[in-house]
Amino acid sequence: MVQQKEYLDTGILQALEEILSKHNPKSIFFVTGKNSYNLCGAEKMLEPIFEKYKHVRFSDFSVNPKLDDVLKGVSLFLERKCDFVVAIGGGTVLDIAKLVNIFSENKANPQDYILKKEQISVKGHPLAAIPTTAGSGSEATHFAVVYIDKTKYSLAHEYILPDYAVVDSSLMMSLPQKITAFTGMDALCQAIESYWNVKSTEESKNYASQAIKLIIENLEDAVLNNSDISKKAMALAAHLAGKAINISQTTACHAISYPITSYFGIPHGHAVGLTMPSMIVYNYGVSKDDVLDRRGAGYVKKTMEDFFEILGVGGAEEAGEKISELMSSIGLCTRLNELNITKNDIDMIVRNGFNPDRVKNNPRKITENCLRDMLEELL
Predict the structure, then answer these.
(1) Per-residue pLDDT tens for 2-26?
(2) Mean pLDDT value of segment 34-53
(3) Packing angle between helix 177-196 and helix 228-248, nearest 10 degrees?
(4) CA dist., res. 321 & res. 278, Å (int)
């Protein structure tokens, strides 16, 4: 795996100056959001640095990374002969940068890599990833999300991992409450799903447990009060959650969330959180007949009980209630009907959210009928 250098709250200015002076790039491909780069304060802060280097800024893409957006970026990257990538923004910005970078060096049709018809064989140029939300943890992962039409794909390879992760919570202070809530829920669900994942290791569970504790203690304060301390804790937690899923990946809640986002416009972190309370109860009901973790039903039960201890609760029902209460406290609906999703929509969500790769990472086997029942109970 590519070794990543981390700069955790050392300050974006100091970190980026050090990184760029080391590489002395001829032309920087600079990926940002359309407005977030200015609103988070990074533009004013970094202007003196970027004046020293030839660069091209790319922000012409939609909220969820689409293949057409990536192709536009690759064309611009090659046209300007870029040799370094800096990405400052949320998960979409970081994923776009990772994809453009890797496709600029691997010359087959990008769609063939996404559909696993071709294998990535060449590393891209050096990439510094700087998150402005405490959510996706994309700066810490070796995969990137991309949509073709309304279908979500995840491209994974060790060469996709950014060379540098610069985590500076000062960039997150101007985030609106809703964005802080959505992205914080994404980080929490990533950490929980990593913790119970069939691919979990002691290392990933350590990252995940740290992230869960930090988020449970700080998310509400970060959303409602925007305090420096809670925002700093959330920035670290999201990075730790990213490191956790970089080892284990995610599970069923993420798989189910994608059609909820694609077809109903529910922001990703909110969409993932909707099924988390139900999934906690479901996974604790694991038995030897439906366990998917090779370590056995007893191991999964113990893992779930350790998770309840991290949450500070006595059992599965109480754990689910704690997540639901947290969502409500930060202004997120917890029922599908509150989001204009009806019983008639359930089949479509099941059909498009039953991703075999992610569902098989879940510690307890999920059938389409189980998933349908779970969603109907959330109406």
Answers:
(1) 689 999 988 899 999 999 999 999 9
(2) 90
(3) 40
(4) 9
- pLDDT above 70 (res 1): no
The answer to whether the beta carbons of residues 23 and 84 sit under 8 Å apart is yes
Contacts (Cβ under 8 Å, ≥6 apart) of 276: 188, 189, 192, 253, 320, 323
Domain 5-172 has CATH 3.40.50.410: no
Torsion of CA 276, 277, 279, 280, to 10 degrees: 110
Q: What is the 3-state composition of the chain as percent helix, strand, coil, each rounded to the nearest 5? A: 60, 10, 30
Phi then psi for 74, rounded to 5 degrees?
Answer: -60, -45
Sign of torsion, CA 292 297 301 303? negative
* Long-range pairs of 368-373 with CB within 8 A, sequence gap ≥ 24: 370/282, 371/252, 371/256, 372/346, 372/347
Rounded distance between C-alpha atoms, residue 217 and residue 233, angstroms: 9
Domain boundaries, the chain: 5-172, 177-377
> In sequence order, what are the beta bridge partners of 56?
29
Distances (CA, A) of 283 to 161, 220, 291: 31, 26, 9
Residue at token pair 């007893």: 298
Six token digits for residue 173 = 């202070």
- Between CA 363 and CA 287 the distance in angstroms is 10
Q: pTM of the predicted model, to two decimals? A: 0.96
**Band of residue 370 on the pLDDT scale cut at 50, 70, 90:** very high
Instruction: State the DSSP string of 63-78.
Output: SS-BHHHHHHHHHHHH
Please tell me the CATH code under which domain 177-377 is placed. Answer: 1.20.1090.10
Taking alpha carbons only, the member of 339, 15, 362 closest to residue 167 is 15
Compute CA 99 distance to the chain's CA centroid, rounded to the nearest angstrom.
15
Exposed/middle/buried for residue 272 (C-beta within 10 Å: 0-12, 13-18, 19+): buried
Residue 357: is its pLDDT beyond 80? Answer: no
**Straight-line distance from the first to the last Cα atom of the chain, in angstroms, rounded to the nearest whole number:** 43
- Both tokens of 146, joined, read 């991309």
